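Suppose you are handed a protein chain with no further information: no name, no annotation, nothing but its sequence. What can you learn? This example shows the usual starting point.
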Amino acid sequence: MEKDEVYKRVREKVEKLFGFYSHLAVYVVVNVFLLSSTVAVLWGIGLFFHAFGVFGSRYKERMIEKMVKKEMGKQGISGTNEPIK
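A reasonable first move is to predict its three-dimensional structure. Written in structure tokens, the prediction is:
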């Protein structure tokens, strides 16, 4: 993978992360004024799914990499230090 491709991929991940952080900040500020509102609960559910979309892919990638290494070990294949994509 070339340096430009890696940069683009990392930049996309960082953009998603910052999008989540700004969503979280707006949620907290607005819900200070909506303490007992149903809107706060429903928005919180949406925020949860946003967080899962941002952070869930990291967990999935780690799990895939772990299982690939395990399977390669069973097959007697030596791996590299580069992550599988």
